[in-house]
Design brief:
With 358 residues, the protein is α/β, with parallel strands linked by helices. The chain has twelve helices and 15 strands. Helix 8 runs parallel beside helix 9.
Length: 358
């Protein structure tokens, strides 16, 4: 039987690295189940990994960080890329269409990883995977159905693993969900740790507009953007979620629950956009973190957003391509609100193709 090593521990990590560098397979914990891992450069390891491959437990090349994603699948885009960016390590194996396995890989490894012209990649959520870069070779992981702890893993892998790293009970206990990309969209082909409703929410292109009080400018930008996207896609604004979009607005100094100003409602209506049910909301870190586009109404808003010290935040941008402020019409005449709406509409027109192609 395979040796069982306790994690964490420097000796455990060094032993696991030695086995991998020697072309042996090691069973490692993950958030989903335990996974059998081996070097893609070792014919012996690839043969062993192939024994445990299954339709719901796909062999996948291990991704350790964002740079690995760019190197392995430079054509990853749209919904698949958004899911990885928003969640990082997730209980998911992603099959990327029209991808080719890295040229460095031997034919046997490419044959194991490629299915129907798709390359499988996997980024497990466990601390031990951050230690594997020093192997110096691409690694392949195969999730083990039913391997929920070290003991059950030992029964499953038998003599096929040189060692099992005991990281305690798997958090989820099910093999990762399998998600296939299809152009810019993706869909779930096997439900594991990532649920369909979670994939649906995370894969949408989230667009966020930011102003101060969230009663005039950013709400106008939101509903005008929804109307423009819907017109381009041939649907109603209420159907945008089905087309992969989620549009929001918030204020940096907003009180929650205030309606849009009556003048803003009238200005929106001239563009066939509805602001009548709007309720103001304060900008939150969660809203911003999951945003794919963050548009600020003024340079003041932009500077404030820039000062948020969160590495994962999408870089905020000015709504105006010319970096001009969208003037605040609060307290102004209906004509000033119409001017504001026109300025917002012109700025949105400049961004629309980019949003459609996201």
């Amino acid at each position: 039987m395979a040796a069982i090593l306790s994690f964490p521990g420097d000796d455990t990590i060094q032993a696991a690295l030695r086995h991998l560098q020697n072309g042996e397979c090691v069973a490692l914990p993950s958030e989903s189940t335990y996974e059998l891992v081996g070097s893609a450069m070792s014919e012996r390891a690839v043969e062993t990994l192939a024994r445990f491959a299954a339709p719901t437990a796909l062999p996948a090349i291990l991704i350790m960080n964002d740079d690995d994603i760019a190197d392995c699948v430079p054509n990853l885009r749209g919904e698949g890329l958004r899911v990885y960016r928003k969640l990082g390590p997730v209980p998911m194996t992603l099959q990327v269409e029209s991808a080719s396995a890295p040229s460095i890989l031997p034919a046997a490894a490419k044959g194991l990883l490629m299915r129907d012209g798709r390359l499988a990649i996997r980024r497990p959520a466990h601390a031990i995977y951050a230690e594997l870069h020093s192997v110096g070779e691409p690694l392949i992981a195969v999730p083990l159905e039913g391997a929920v702890d070290a003991a059950s893993t030992a029964r499953i892998v038998g003599e096929h693993a040189a060692a099992i790293v005991d990281g305690g009970a798997a958090q989820i206990g099910r093999t990762p969900s399998i998600v296939q990309t299809n152009g810019r969209r993706c869909h779930l082909t096997h439900v594991g740790g990532l649920l369909p409703e979670e994939l649906d929410e995370l894969s949408r292109c989230r667009i966020v507009f930011i102003c101060t009080g969230n009663t005039c400018r950013s709400p106008l930008a939101k509903v005008l953007c929804e109307r423009m996207l819907a017109d381009r896609l041939g649907c109603e604004p209420t159907e945008l979620a089905q087309h992969g979009y989620s549009v929001h607005s918030a204020g940096l100094a907003a009180s929650n629950g205030s309606p849009a100003s009556s003048e803003a409602v009238l200005a929106a209506a001239e563009y066939r956009a509805d602001l009548s049910t709007h309720q103001s909301a304060m900008a939150t870190i969660e809203l911003l973190l999951w945003a794919d586009f963050i548009f600020a109404m003024t340079q003041g808003h932009w500077y404030t957003l820039q000062s948020i010290a969160v590495d994962e935040l999408t870089p905020p941008r000015m709504l105006s391509p010319r970096h001009e402020d969208i003037a605040d019409p609060i307290g102004g005449s209906p004509a000033e609100y119409r001017t504001c709406a026109l300025q917002i509409a012109e700025c949105l027109t400049a961004h629309l193709n980019e949003l459609i192609e996201a």
